[in-house]
Amino acid sequence: MSSIALVTGGNRGIGLAIAHSLKAAGHDVVITYRSGKAPEGFKAVQMDVTSSDSVDAGFTSIEDQWGTPEIIVANAGITKDGLVMRMSDEDFDSVINANLTGAFRVARRATKGLLKLKRGRLIFVGSVVGSVGSAGQVNYSSSKAGLVGMARSFAREIGSRGITANVIAPGFVETDMTATLDEKRRTEIAASVPLGRFCTAEEIADVVTFIASPQASYISGALIPVDGGLGMGH
């Protein structure tokens, strides 16, 4: 029987690529989305990771319909970039709430089912900027750095039950967000990456699928960079 994989924010970008990759690997994939509509071909529930009630309702719906999610990919997140002198409390708090506290809400609720199964994977989608920082992204890089401490604490707390917790840290990825950058800036960014190019969403998804696989059963508490060498040594 295939295991159920849950991907938050799985309706576009990296999340959708992860959902497709996990599905191709034989997992029964459920995605969550906050607004808009779910992509075709996937089981889906509406979930707002900034609300514990919404997260609980989403998990309850999944459990009632399809069973206990065994692979949890905490991918949902937002950006509100801006220079620190102009960054409001709301801009900082909302990004932390969605990206860091949101991942906690999802992982905490997932743990109830994983502890009963006595197995599972918690996979947090971080970012290279969580390690190296980024001008204009004090809020975002703080939220992604926090995921590392969170994942490692989960790894220590529930590892004895056969549950692993890891962070995947993408570099610059070809998504709708980076597509809006002008050509000069894109060239500058690519030049800063040892491999000289942006990452594809599929390259991120393949690493997530590996971490979800039996081959990665002894990897836990790891920060796994998929950044073309951009953050090496961090």
Give an overview in words.
- There is one protein chain.
- With 234 residues, the protein is α/β, with parallel strands linked by helices.
- It has one domain (4-172, 200-223): NAD(P)-binding Rossmann-like Domain (Rossmann fold, 3-Layer(aba) Sandwich), CATH 3.40.50.720.
- It contains 8 helices and 7 strands.
- Helix 3 (89-117) links the parallel strand 4 and strand 5.
- Helix 2 packs parallel to helix 3 and helix 3 (89-117) runs parallel beside helix 5 (138-158).
- The radius of gyration is 17 Å and the shape is globular.
- The model has no long low-confidence stretch (mean pLDDT 95).
- Adjacency order of strands in the biggest sheet: 3-2-1-4-5-6-7
Helix content: 40-55%
The CATH architecture is 3-Layer(aba) Sandwich
| The first-level CATH class name | Alpha Beta
Percentage of β-strand residues: 15-25%
In DSSP terms, counting alpha (H) and pi (I) runs of 4 or more, how many helices?
A: 8
What structural class results from the helix and strand content? Answer: alpha/beta
Question: What would you give as the CATH superfamily?
Answer: NAD(P)-binding Rossmann-like Domain
Gyration radius, in Å: 17 Å
Concise description?
With 234 residues, the chain is α/β, with parallel strands linked by helices. 45% of the residues lie in helices and 15% in strands.
